[in-house]
Structure formats: structure tokens, C-alpha cells
Write a sequence for this structure.
């Protein structure tokens, strides 16, 4: 954090010098013939009740398991969250936990309730037009199967889409029914499910989330009972199929073809056993069959061959809902959870359903948050959700960091360089190093050694994150800070003292350009052929073509458009302006810079974010601030600029976004209610979905916060890290 004195802003030589999940909806084992028969008998009151008896409550069987280091498992109940009367289904994704809560009286609203998984608190209740039977998340939306009407003559099915940014219903897809799944960039549902499918069977519908329209129709020839997505395929569970029709259908989303109709070898026990929907993971579909000899039989289907392999595994009961941490996880009728170890094929993990408010008849809807290894179970008869964390509590040594949701973070922690990846692996690259940048493919870290004395030189080098191998790129007389890879990974630009230098990424003789004068900051254009330079005042905004060596100056600090913008926000008639840390947008259309007013007539000194097009025309501006902020970055996926904002000295209390297309400027994070907490740094994730924020609280240390740009809420606080220095160097692939 630096204040802005009435002198030229010159960057430091290094950051050490001053403190600075898809949801795939699942079915629980409510398909037992006895349960279905009883549900039908109880549901005569309304057609919706009858349909619920036919359709089991969804639960998560997704097998999209991220590669993880071995996990120390210790399942335990960590929270019970009240949500309202008789919740039905749960989904995890788009930064939250979502649960459907149906109206109990005509004057009440049907709701989808949103839970913050960090605080385990309800943060929104979203009214829905119809009864929401099932929820799915992913592809930028929350999808709810809405049922309206009271009987077979007037009942209608549709899917409502909720925007997780606004918590509002933004679209309705008519004539689309559950079961639902999300995967391969699509929403999957059917026209008619269960007994409504008729003799022709169900048609699988592929919905394009970009248009909310049907992109493909796939005739199944059987009545669909459930749909899952995992291991690269869509899986459809048939309802009472005839021989040859397949208990499980496997659909390739690349071709929209049914590539296999899988027959499960059912034992002859005098009546037809019931096949449930599979849990997916570890290259297999784990298909449960209920209930020969009052046991559950678990069959393994190899995804590659679409064939049943090995002998069935006999288990106490329940329904598999997920595969994670080398276990298949099951939930039983009254809420007991257990895990089948895939290495030993024995149950070695469990949580008793009697230790917390149990689920409801016939089986509770269950969902796994794979990123957090947290299971969410609907307690329909207790008006709540139970959270069960599968992993053991972190050891004290690891409590300072949590995994980013994607990619890798390159961090400067005091004088040590660390890399934290999405699997929670913390890699220490070394002490007495300065973190600079990650290569575009995320395989290499660019770092610098520290000078061994005031007059000593420094080494610019890369570290292979897999092998640890170090390669020298250049030797310099001073710390080569800043240093940045070109977007195509072919070149590295760095500053030796205040001289701009270029070097091939594989190492070669550096080309340094002292004729450019003192270069403070720079940023690559997306085409890897140009650099925009930040120079001392009153130098113009300068662009260097690294191929031809041509220099252009699209904006001068005394241009009337610049002076007028500064005057309009109360800075008077500026007489000395510096363009500091210009940044190129990911599309290449815009350049954002901080205009720092050092001398003015009839106003005050201050700072203002200005956005220009590449021809030098002023497009928009941010909110004027009295304080200097280092926290500034373009989204890598869209032309949106994030920056830190502050009014009082030494206090950067907001993170804001500026959209040059609309001119909209808004705060998405505020620390104004936290005493003396300031926003020090920010970076976008490689996909542009997340922003990580570093804030500093002088009395409590430095905190690393992970922030979702999608829903603008803090998703996770990564505890206090040793004060005084934590700097974000980069968030890469």
C-alpha cells in the first residue's frame, strides 16, 4: 500500500521492499418397487404428489473428480442449516448451495433457497412460479424443474433458469422435464419421464445454455427414469425396460448418439430387482441393484467398453451418490453415510444417521461439493440441510492456505516464493527470491534472485514447476522487476533498473532499449507484438512495436480529453499528470491506466482510472480516488477492468469493476466496515470467473480472500498469513 505524495510515482525494485464445482443431479434409491407403490398410494391427493412418488429425489452421482493428493478422511457433521418446511432437492455449484423449498399453503411462495458454503447461512430466498421438483447447476445457471397444475389434465412441466449473479429467474424453457444433468456445455433433460413417456419412450433433449433452446433431440426408445453426466458421457436410467432396451443407456455428447445399451445381469430372486442410477468416477459407472437378500449389489461398468466387469459387491444398502477420494459414497434411508474404499473394496468410512437430523422417506437428496469434499444432505422431515465434511480438519501448518478454484497462484510470502494450485498443493520455490510471473501454460515460474549486496547483480530465471529445474534467462545489475511473459510465451520483457529489455523465453542475449528513457511499468498486448509503457510525467502513453521497433504515442497527458475528464471529477485544471501502470485488455481493444494528478489549479490532487481505445480516444473513466492503489487488472475473458479504490490516505476499501462498453462502474467488494482493512492486491483467474483479493489489516496480519466475480460474494477466507508481506504475482493456468 502506498500513498500518493506530490512527487513522481516511481515503482519499487521489488515487492519485498515494503509491506504490501458442476452439479449433475442424481436420483436417490427411491425406485424400490415397494417405495414407489407406497408413494403412489399416498399421492392420490394431487397429481404432483403422484409424480413425486414415481420420480426419486435427486442426489449427486457426478464423477467429475479433480486429481487430488491423498486425502486424510474423517467424515463428520459440521453444520445443520435450517431452510424451511420440507425441502426436497439440493444442488451445489455456481458458488453456492441451492435447495428447493415448496410452498405449504396456497398463499406461500415456492422457493429456491441459496446457502453460502463459507458461512453455512441462507443468503437468498428466490420465489418460483411453480413447485420445483429438481435442481441442477452449471453452464452459468441454476436450473429448476417447475411443475404447475393439480391433475393430469392441466399439469405442465418446464425448466426455470436462475441467474446466479442476480438471484432472479431470467428464462423459462417450456415442455422440458426432469430428470436433469449438466455437462459438455449443455443442459440435458427429457420431454416426458417415467410413466408419462408412453410406449414410444422419452426423448432426451440437449439445451444450449447460450440460447436456452433445444439444440438436439435424441430418441431413447425407453422411458427415462434418471439422467447423469460424468466420465465424458450422458447416462440414462431406464424405467422397466424390455430385454435388449438397456437398463442404462450411454450417450456420447460429441455425436448425440446412443453408443451403448447396457444390460445389468440381474439375479433371479422371484421378482425383478430394481436398478438405480450409477455413481460415476474412476473410469467406471457404479450401478446399484436393490435388494437381493436385503442387500445392495454394486456392479461396475467399465466406461471404455460399456461392459460389466468383475463380480458385484454386496453392501448393506443405501444409494451411491458420488465418487471421490478413492471411495464410492452412499447415503442410506435415514441419512447414514458410508464410503466404500475402491482399493480394498471394504466400507471404511461412516457417519451415523442418528447423530444428526436424519433424512426423509424414502431416501434423502444428497449432493457432494467436490472442491470442498463436503456432502449436503436434505433433511426433509427436519426442515434443514446437514453438511458432512469428508476430510479431516487441516493441520495447523496448512491452515494458512486454501486451494484456488482453478489454476495456480504465484505468491510472494515475505522473502519466500510459493505456488498454490487448485488441488491444494503448496509448492515452495525457494527463499530470497522475488516472484514475477507464471508462463502462459502454467508450467514455469519466472523469478528473480535478490542482490547479494547494494551493488550486487541479480539473476532472472525460470523454475519448472514439475521438475524443479532452474534455467537462467538473464543476468542484470539490478532486480529485473517487473518482468512479464508475452501472451504467446515466446518472449519475456523485464526492466533492468529503469531500462526496458527483451529476451527470448528460452534464454538468449537480451535486447535493452535505453533510448526509451526511464520506463516505470509496461504491459503486453494480446498479440505479443506490442508493449504499452508507463513513463515519468509528463510523458505520453507510449506503445512500442517489439517487431519493428516503432514507437507511437496515442495519448498525451495534456490532451484536452484527459484534462476535461480530470476537471469533471473535481481535480481542477491539472498541470502535471502521470500515466501509471497502463494495462491492455484481453481483446486488445482498450488500454486502462491510472492518471495521477500531481499539480493542479482550482482542484485537488488525486487519481482516476481512464480507459482509452487503441487510437487514443477516451472511452470511459472510473471513480475518482484520493489514494493510490496497485490493485488493477483486466479480466482475461471479457473487457472488464477491476481496480482498488480508496478515498482517505492509506485506505483502499473497495474493489470495483469498470465496463468500457457500458461505462458501468460498481463496487463488488467493500472492506469499509472492517477497521483499517485495505485492499492491497487483486488478480483474475485464468477463466475470468474468479477474482482473488489480498487485504491487509495492520493489527491482525495479512488475509488472502477468494472472491467470486460471478456472484460478488467472498467464498472463502484463507486465514491470517504472516505479516507484513503477501503479494500476488500472478494467477495462471
Amino acid at each position: 500500500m502506498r500513498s500518493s505524495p506530490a512527487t513522481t510515482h516511481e515503482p519499487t525494485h521489488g515487492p519485498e521492499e515494503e509491506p504490501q464445482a458442476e452439479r449433475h443431479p442424481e436420483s436417490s434409491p427411491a425406485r424400490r418397487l415397494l417405495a414407489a407403490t407406497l408413494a403412489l398410494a399416498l399421492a392420490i391427493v394431487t397429481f404432483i404428489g403422484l409424480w413425486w412418488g414415481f420420480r426419486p429425489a435427486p442426489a449427486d452421482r457426478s464423477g467429475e473428480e479433480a486429481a487430488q493428493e491423498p486425502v486424510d478422511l474423517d467424515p463428520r457433521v459440521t453444520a445443520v442449516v435450517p431452510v424451511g418446511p420440507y425441502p426436497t432437492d439440493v444442488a451445489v455449484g455456481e458458488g453456492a448451495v441451492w435447495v428447493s423449498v415448496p410452498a405449504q399453503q396456497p398463499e406461500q411462495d415456492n422457493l429456491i433457497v441459496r446457502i453460502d458454503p463459507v458461512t453455512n447461512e441462507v443468503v437468498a430466498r428466490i420465489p418460483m412460479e411453480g413447485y420445483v421438483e429438481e435442481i441442477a447447476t452449471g453452464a452459468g445457471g441454476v436450473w429448476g424443474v417447475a411443475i404447475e397444475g393439480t391433475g393430469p389434465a392441466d399439469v405442465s412441466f418446464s425448466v426455470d433458469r436462475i441467474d446466479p449473479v442476480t438471484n432472479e429467474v431470467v428464462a423459462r424453457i417450456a415442455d422440458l422435464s426432469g430428470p436433469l444433468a449438466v455437462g459438455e456445455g449443455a443442459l440435458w433433460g427429457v420431454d416426458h419421464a417415467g410413466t408419462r413417456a408412453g410406449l414410444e419412450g422419452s426423448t432426451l433433449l440437449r439445451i444450449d445454455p447460450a440460447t436456452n433452446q433445444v439444440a438436439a433431440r435424441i430418441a431413447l426408445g425407453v422411458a427415462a427414469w434418471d439422467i447423469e453426466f460424468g466420465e465424458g458421457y450422458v447416462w440414462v436410467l431406464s424405467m422397466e425396460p424390455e430385454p435388449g432396451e438397456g437398463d442404462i443407456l450411454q450417450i456420447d455428447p460429441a455425436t448425440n448418439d446412443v453408443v451403448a445399451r447396457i444390460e445389468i445381469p440381474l439375479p433371479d430372486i422371484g421378482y425383478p430387482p430394481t436398478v438405480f442410477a450409477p455413481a460415476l468416477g474412476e473410469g467406471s459407472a457404479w450401478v446399484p441393484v436393490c435388494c437381493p437378500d436385503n442387500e445392495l449389489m454394486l456392479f461396475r461398468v467399465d466406461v471404455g467398453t460399456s461392459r460389466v466387469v468383475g463380480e458385484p459387491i454386496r453392501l448393506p444398502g443405501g444409494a451411491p451418490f458420488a465418487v471421490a477420494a478413492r471411495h464410492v459414497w452412499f447415503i442410506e434411508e435415514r441419512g447414514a453415510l458410508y464410503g466404500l474404499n475402491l482399493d480394498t473394496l471394504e466400507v471404511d468410512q461412516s457417519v451415523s444417521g442418528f447423530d444428526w437430523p436424519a433424512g426423509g422417506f424414502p431416501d434423502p437428496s444428497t449432493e457432494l461439493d467436490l472442491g470442498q469434499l463436503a456432502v449436503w444432505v436434505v433433511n426433509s422431515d427436519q426442515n434443514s440441510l446437514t453438511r458432512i465434511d469428508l476430510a479431516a480438519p487441516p493441520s495447523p501448518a496448512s491452515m494458512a492456505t486454501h486451494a484456488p478454484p482453478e489454476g495456480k497462484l504465484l505468491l510472494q510470502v515475505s522473502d519466500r516464493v510459493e505456488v498454490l494450485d487448485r488441488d491444494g498443493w503448496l509448492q515452495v520455490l525457494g527463499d530470497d527470491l522475488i516472484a514475477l510471473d507464471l508462463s502462459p501454460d502454467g508450467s514455469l515460474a519466472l523469478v528473480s534472485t535478490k542482490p547479494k549486496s547494494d551493488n550486487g547483480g541479480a539473476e532472472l530465471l525460470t523454475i519448472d514447476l514439475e521438475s524443479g529445474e532452474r534455467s537462467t534467462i538473464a543476468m542484470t545489475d539490478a532486480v529485473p522487476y517487473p518482468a512479464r511473459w508475452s501472451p504467446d510465451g515466446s518472449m519475456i520483457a523485464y526492466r533492468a533498473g529503469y531500462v526496458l529489455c527483451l529476451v527470448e523465453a528460452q534464454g538468449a542475449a537480451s535486447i535493452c532499449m535505453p533510448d526509451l528513457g526511464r520506463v516505470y511499468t509496461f504491459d503486453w498486448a494480446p498479440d505479443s507484438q506490442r508493449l504499452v509503457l508507463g513513463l515519468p510525467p509528463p510523458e505520453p502513453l507510449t506503445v512500442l512495436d517489439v517487431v519493428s521497433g516503432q514507437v507511437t504515442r496515442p495519448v498525451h497527458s495534456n490532451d484536452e480529453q484527459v484534462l476535461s475528464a480530470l476537471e469533471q471529477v473535481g481535480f481542477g485544471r491539472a498541470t502535471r499528470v502521470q500515466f501509471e501502470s497502463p494495462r491492455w485488455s484481453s481483446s486488445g481493444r482498450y488500454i486502462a491506466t491510472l492518471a495521477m494528478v500531481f499539480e493542479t489549479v482550482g482542484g485537488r490532487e488525486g487519481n482516476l482510472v481512464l480507459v482509452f481505445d487503441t487510437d487514443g480516444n477516451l472511452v470511459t473513466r472510473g471513480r475518482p480516488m484520493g489514494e493510490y492503489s496497485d490493485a488493477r487488472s483486466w479480466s482475461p475473458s471479457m473487457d472488464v477492468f477491476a481496480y482498488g479504490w480508496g478515498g482517505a490516505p492509506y485506505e483502499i476499501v473497495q474493489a470495483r469493476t469498470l465496463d468500457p462498453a457500458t461505462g458501468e462502474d460498481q463496487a463488488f467488494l467493500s472492506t469499509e466496515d472492517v477497521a483499517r482493512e485495505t485492499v492491497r492486491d487483486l488478480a483474475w483467474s485464468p477463466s475470468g470467473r474468479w477474482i482473488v483479493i489480498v487485504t491487509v489489516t495492520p493489527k491482525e496480519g495479512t488475509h488472502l480472500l477468494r472472491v467470486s466475480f460471478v456472484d460478488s460474494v467472498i467464498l472463502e477466507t484463507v486465514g491470517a498469513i504472516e505479516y507484513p508481506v503477501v503479494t500476488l504475482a500472478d494467477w495462471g493456468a
Summary: The first strand starts at residue 73 and ends at 82. Confidence is low (pLDDT under 50) at residues 1-8, 12-68, 394-401, 719-724. The CA atoms of residues 392 and 648 lie 43 Å apart. Residues 33-391 form a domain with the Methylamine Dehydrogenase; Chain H fold (CATH 2.130.10.10).
